[in-house]
């Protein structure tokens, strides 16, 4: 029987270990960030959210499947931060791992929060991952509007959140949006380039 | 109907629960694909730190976004009523 046991493919094993480690790191990162978010919500008296870890794991795995298909098809070597942000938003919005406890059905504030919570968290995550300075963005928009600020950053971000809930969203399109916002208002100029150099 | 729930008795860390979930065959199989050695290392520890550092500002802008969406929806309701 010993003769029929195939030789262990070390490269494959290493990749499996690496793969699971990456998935686990992303899972833990999102879980930790949600804990920070939810602590702030609780401090505001909004105590109805919890993270479904099975759904979060599914979202993270779906993200990596999506990225892998994208890379295979287009021959992309490295997913940049805008793709990470775009596809993370896509899967958090689609699988909605943040779940909602029972609340007063007459409370319209909680009703809307329950509807939007996954989009809100996903967009917050994306702004960090894509390195977008929303304060700088606000200054740019205000300057472009020449003082007649009919549009502000909150409208832009709100529109993004609204689309995550009510529209078909595409990871690549989101990635393009995040790239554009980053080019307009980078939080730490040059950081992405430094990271790419490290990764490459 | 049973009153039983599927809530675990013990609270696991994300690390512990993540490892269990990775091995759960009920979830999406990950054994038949590879990420590839050149996949991005997204500095998850760094992202966690930055998120914690900037959460108040991020909440401020997204909370204002929610308020403006709410106001917009309220406007739509008013317009619809006016149209009636």
Structure report:
The complex is a heterodimer of chains A (200) and B (84). By secondary structure, chain A is mostly helical. Helix content of chain A is 70%, strand content 3%. Chain B has 84 residues and is an all-alpha fold. The longest helix of chain B has 40 residues. The C terminus of chain B is likely disordered. Chains A and B meet through α1, α2, α4, α5 and α6 of A and α1 and α2 of B.
Properties at a glance:
A: 200 residues; mainly alpha; 70% helix; globular; disordered C terminus; B: mainly alpha; 2 helices; elongated
Topology:
The complex is a heterodimer of chains A (200) and B (84).
Chain A: H1 10-43, E1 49-51, H2 53-74, H3 81-95, E2 98-100, H4 108-129, H5 134-144, H6 153-166, H7 171-184, H8 191-199
Helix pairs in contact in A: 1-2, 2-3, 3-4, 3-7, 4-6
Chain B: H1 14-22, H2 44-83
Shape of chain B: elongated
End-to-end separation of chain A in angstroms reads 44 Å
What is the radius of gyration of chain A? 20 Å
Q: What average pLDDT do the residues of chain A reach?
A: 84
Low-confidence stretches of chain B: 34-40, 77-84
* pLDDT averaged over residues of chain B: 73
Tally of DSSP helical segments of chain B: 2
Order of helices and strands of chain B: HH
Please tell me how large the radius of gyration of chain B is. Answer: 22 Å
- Name the strands of the widest sheet of chain A in spatial order: 1-2
Write a short abstract of this structure:
Chain A has helices at 10-43, 53-74, 81-95, 108-129, 134-144, 153-166, 171-184, 191-199; strands spanning 49-51, 98-100.
């Amino acid at each position: 029987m010993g003769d029929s046991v195939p030789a262990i493919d070390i490269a494959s094993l290493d990749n499996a270990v690496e793969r699971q480690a990456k998935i686990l790191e992303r899972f833990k990162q999102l879980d930790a960030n949600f804990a920070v978010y939810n602590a702030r919500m609780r401090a505001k008296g909004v105590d109805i959210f919890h993270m479904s870890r099975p759904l979060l794991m599914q979202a993270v795995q779906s993200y990596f499947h999506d990225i892998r298909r994208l890379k295979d098809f287009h021959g992309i070597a490295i997913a940049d931060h805008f793709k990470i942000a775009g596809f993370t938003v896509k899967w958090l919005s689609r699988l909605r791992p943040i779940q909602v406890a029972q609340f007063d059905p007459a409370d319209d504030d909680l009703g809307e929060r329950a509807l939007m919570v996954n989009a809100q968290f996903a967009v917050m995550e994306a702004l960090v991952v894509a390195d977008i300075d929303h304060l700088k963005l606000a200054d740019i928009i205000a300057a472009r509007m020449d003082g007649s600020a009919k549009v502000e950053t909150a409208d832009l971000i709100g529109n993004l959140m609204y689309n995550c809930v009510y529209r078909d969203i595409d990871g690549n399109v989101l990635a393009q949006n995040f790239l554009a916002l980053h080019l307009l208002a980078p939080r730490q100029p040059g950081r992405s380039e430094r990271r790419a150099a490290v990764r490459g | 109907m049973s009153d039983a729930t599927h809530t675990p008795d013990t609270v696991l860390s994300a690390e512990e629960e993540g490892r269990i979930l990775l091995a759960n065959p009920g979830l999406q199989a990950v054994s038949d694909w590879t990420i590839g050695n050149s996949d991005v290392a997204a500095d998850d520890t760094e992202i966690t730190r930055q998120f914690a550092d900037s959460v108040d500002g991020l909440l401020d802008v997204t909370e204002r976004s929610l308020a403006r969406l709410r106001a917009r929806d309220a406007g739509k309701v008013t317009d619809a009523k006016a149209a009636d």
